[in-house]
Write a structure and sequence with these properties.
The termini are far apart. The protein is mostly helical. The radius of gyration is 18 Å and the shape is globular. 79% of the residues lie in helices and 5% in strands. The protein contains seven helices and two strands, in the order E-E-H-H-H-H-H-H-H. About 6% of the residues have low confidence.
């Protein structure tokens, strides 16, 4: 929150969400939030954000999601790219909610997850991700709020279940 400029002195930085993120991110890394805790958070927040996104998503945002899903469906061997597209998909859903708090918190959580997402994809494979992202997209295209929320819930719950199966 304090910025030092050589030859000028020390100044209070303008408060932005990025300042808070920069201050909080190391604390989360030090506490080493478990993957389980992040997935529990996603179960609550991403399912809730999906309802808002379904009501508020634009046709341009649906087309962007379609491009991401198509890339994911064509990808059979690049785990890093698949993980990146997976995070981009969920970030796009958050943005479609049009709720700045959800967007900012989601970006923060997805940044926390980015370190482990490639490992998740490598461990669990791509089949579930391809299936659920396509299902969610189709429900969004139909503006089927209940279907989209249920699909997101099933997606996150399936990931939690599969992670539980492989975690000692």
């Amino acid at each position: 929150i304090v910025e030092t400029r050589h030859g000028e002195g020390s100044f209070i930085k303008k408060v932005t969400s990025d300042n808070y993120k920069d201050m909080l991110f190391p604390a989360f890394m030090i506490n080493k939030n478990t993957l389980q805790e992040i997935l529990e958070y996603r179960t609550i927040m991403e399912v809730g954000a999906m309802g808002l996104a379904c009501d508020r998503i634009t046709e341009d945002e649906i087309r962007d999601l379609e491009r991401i899903v198509i890339r994911m469906e064509k990808n059979n061997d690049n785990f890093r790219k698949f993980a990146s597209d997976d995070l981009a998909f969920h970030n796009s859903i958050a943005r479609a909610s049009k709720n700045d708090l959800i967007i900012n918190v989601s970006v923060f959580v997805l940044e926390l997850m980015s370190a482990s997402m490639e490992h998740i994809v490598t461990t669990l494979g791509m089949i579930d991700g391809k299936h659920f992202h396509r299902l969610i997209l189709e429900k969004l295209k139909q503006h089927d709020r209940t279907g989209a929320v249920d699909a997101m819930r099933a997606h996150v719950e399936k990931t939690v279940m599969r992670i539980d199966e492989i975690t000692p």
